[in-house]
Each structure stands twice: as C-alpha cells, then as structure tokens.
Write a structure and sequence with these properties.
By secondary structure, the protein is of the alpha/beta class. The protein has eleven helices and 17 strands. The protein has a seven-stranded mixed beta sheet with strand order 4-12-11-10-7-5-6, with helices on both faces. Strand 1 and strand 2 form a beta hairpin. Helix 3 packs parallel to helix 9 and helix 9 packs across helix 11. The protein is globular. Bound molecules: pyridoxal-5'-phosphate. The site of pyridoxal-5'-phosphate has 14 residues, from helix 4.
Length: 381
Amino acid sequence: MSNFLRLFHPFPLKVVDGKGIYLTLEDGKEYRDLFSGLGVNLLGHNHPDIIASLSKTFPLHLSLLLEHSLKEEVASDLARITGFDKVFFSNSGTEAVEGALKFMWMWVKEKGNVKNRIISFKNSFHGRTLGSMTVSGLLLHQGFPKLNFDTLFLPFGDEKMLTEEIEKGCDFVILEPIQGASGVRIAKLKFYKTLSILHREFAFGLIVDEIQSGLGRTGEFLASTLFGLDPDIVTIAKGLGGGLPLGAILLKEKIANAMKPGYHGTTMGGNYLSLRLSKVLIKKVQELLEHVRNLDKLLKDVLVPELLANPRVREVRQKGLFIAIELKKENADEVKDILFENGYLVNSLGKRIIRLLPPLIITFEELNDSINEINEVIKGY
Ligand SMILES: Cc1ncc(COP(=O)(O)O)c(C=O)c1O
C-alpha cells in the first residue's frame, strides 16, 4: 500500500532524467513532455543556464527579515518588464491569489463606499485554498466554505452582462485573461475592451490572474498586453521559480499603499534559491518571446488548420503555446492514453479537451511533429 495520498491520476512513469522537452525513464524510453509539469517547465528539463545557476554555493534560505540584493533584483526585473510598481513574492499560485485578494480588499476599504460585491467568471480557476476557491467558478460545486464576499459569477466573454452588473456596482473584478483549467477559453476582443473601458469609468479594482497565461506562454510576457488590459494587480507563479516554488503579486503603488507592515507575510515565499533560478528564468523568457511568436505563426498558418481539417476535431483554441484541441467525441482520455503509449505526455480536460502547455524552448520541428502525431492519433479514435 502506498502512503502517498493521490488525489489525481498520475502517468505511470518512473522518470530518471530529462533534457529539453524529453523525459527519460528507467528503461531508457523517452517521452515528449508537452504539458511541462502543469505548465511549469518553461525552459524544458535541465536547462543549462538553470543548472549553472545551481552550481555555486549560496544561502538556501534568507527570510523576509533579511535584506538581500536578489530580492530587489528580481522585483525590479519584474517591475521593469511589466510596468508595475511593487512586487510581493509567494510560494505558489494560490497564495499569490490569496495575497491579491487581501491587498485588493484593503484598497477597496481604504477607498470607501464598499459594496461587498465582486465579480468573477463561470469556469474560472484561481487556486485551491479557501480564498482563491471562493472566486473560482470551476470549484464551486465542491462544497467548501466561502469567504464573506458576495461573489457574482458571470459568463466569461459576455460584455453585455458585465456592463449591466458593473453598473449596479462592484468593488473589484478578478479574471484569467485566458481561462486555462476550463480548456483555454479566449473571449472576443470586444469583451476585454469593454472591461477596460468600464475599469477606467467606474474605477473598481482589477485583478488579472496570469498564473497560467503569463511568463511568455502566449508570446507576450503577460497576456494582459495582448488584450489591452491595465490591471491593478497581476498574479504570476508556475514557471516563475525556474522549476522551484515561487509566485508573485505585481501591484500598482495605490494598492501597495493600502497595506501596512504585518498585514501579509510568508516564511518561505521569495526564498533565495527560487529567486536565484527566477532571475535566470525571467531573462530567458524575455529572449524566448520572439520564438514563441514565431511558433504561434506556425500554429495559426499551418498546424491549427491541419487539426481543423480533421473531421474528429470540433475546435482548436490557441494563443502562442497555450493550446486546447476540442474533440467531437467524448474520448479525450482515450486519445491521451494512446499518445502516452506513443511517447507523448498531454493533458485531458473533461471528456473532450486535450490541453497542451509545451515548454517555450520547443523547436519548430518538435512542435510540428508533435501536433502531426496528435492529429494522427485523433483520426484513429
Ligand atoms: C490561473 C491559475 N490560477 C491559480 C492557480 C493555482 O496555482 P498553484 O497550483 O501554484 O497554487 C493555477 C494553477 O493551475 C492557475 O492555472
């Protein structure tokens, strides 16, 4: 009997090593990892720059109570790239969202005229701790207790309902610019434009959760840029620590000013080792943006049309390397299993969706071959 509590179904793999998009098993068999450990391994496995940054000695942990230049350096890299004023580090995505909710709440209170009414979206996913679950449309049915926010869940992409509800009053809106866990759902440009106009007009707070869409996945450092959003807070995590736990809350000054010392904190958030890898990761992601945009073009011009020509494919939703293939038949698990037998790791969502989050370092050839293989497997099932 295993003592490890499994609340998910792992691939039955005994991994011993990895390089680039490949994972190697005990018996030497190689798998193409097109899901990057839930979207974390942006630079693939064992990237030489990451390994090099591990090879010197340094203090493994320095708490928030000790100043060190790395903390400042990574915060200033992120601020410079994204245009935000302040950065607070966390260990994970869900903690970044928890912090974002606390920070936003304090700003709302300080501003006054609290309506206790916030807007999130159906099928959204913001994490698995109680605060972030409270605003996660996908997890509502699980029956856990909720925070005392009056949270409205609107259909994602419905600008008419959004306008109506915001006109009734709201303290803040939280959204994923592209909904990841519900299958790479992208709204029409008009929806994002309406949200931006309403944000300026009504001056409510805007939290954009870029934990899955950020850090180059769409070809932009933040997907907010693609849609012209100007959030007050952005959350990032997943790949930020170069494979180690690290999240960050990016804040405008006005929000940061509403927080007082002691209102939020963390023991391990922004630990030295994760920040060290993060510095490398952020630099590499910037260098890879152009490459991801070129892959986006290959997908849009060639690979997505090829998938759409497959009579078993209903829809493909894609921005950069954020990809969902929706099948006509309810056999996503079967397709995933066959791909697994053929040496490909992909993710299935619900009954019809195959989700891919390949590392940003994937080459043209690797992406081309992988999508062709996926297409062939879908044809056979
Ligand atoms: C958009 C989004 N928000 C939050 C989270 C939670 O992040 P973590 O699993 O690091 O807590 C995820 C994780 O998949 C996510 O995709």
